[in-house]
């Protein structure tokens, strides 16, 4: 890939431009290039869901999609329509080494990038329970996830924290205390392990 603007890149050239990282180059620069290629690619995809799906099927690059190809095509078609009118951008997220965001960064991302606020789920939606692993045992978070999901809760992995002597369930406001007590029971904890504080995001 030659240096310069307004170039048309072939598939292999685009992949190289998006993924190559020179020795000593900050990861943020490589990720910015990746975002540029994503935006340019979306601008080339059809806004018609059926046509976008045909493109995905023709490429044969998505071997095990998390979405069926039809749904993925529809999603990409919507993104393509936004990209073509300039209503699409990528942003670097300040993730930690384990891939999660701190509480402060989570609120910043929701406010500054997504244009909203962290708020309670809608009525009828599963209660979200954020878990921060402070045991030093990798398997502890997975065990908590299984218990919470089996109890009907939505598990949110909030990463790791410094080692703590005991587990605690935190709730933000008085009306959430009863829910926090139920979460504690699900995790095999007592009501004494429930405290008011700032929960993990």
Uncertain runs: none
Strand content: 5-15%
Spatial order of strands in the largest sheet: 1-2
Order of helices and strands: HHHHHEHEEHE
Give the tally of β-strands: 4
Q: What is the CATH architecture annotation of the largest domain?
A: 2-Layer Sandwich
Biggest sheet record: 2 strands, parallel
Structural class: mainly alpha
Explain what this protein looks like in three dimensions.
- Pfam families: LytR_C.
- This is LytR C-terminal domain-containing protein.
- Residues 127-191 form the LytR/CpsA/Psr regulator C-terminal domain.
- It comes from Streptomyces sp. SID7499.
- This protein has 201 residues and is mainly alpha-helical.
- It has 2 domains: 11-84, no CATH class; 93-201, Alpha-Beta Plaits, CATH 3.30.70.
- It is 44% helix and 9% strand.
- A two-stranded parallel ribbon has the order 1-2.
- Helix 1 runs antiparallel to helix 2 and helix 2 crosses helix 4.
- The radius of gyration is 22 Å and the shape is elongated.
Give a brief outline of the structure.
With 201 residues, the chain is mainly α. 44% of the residues lie in helices and 9% in strands.
Key terms:
two-stranded parallel sheet, 201 residues, LytR/CpsA/Psr_C, mainly alpha, 7 helices, Alpha-Beta Plaits, LytR/CpsA/Psr_CW_biosynth
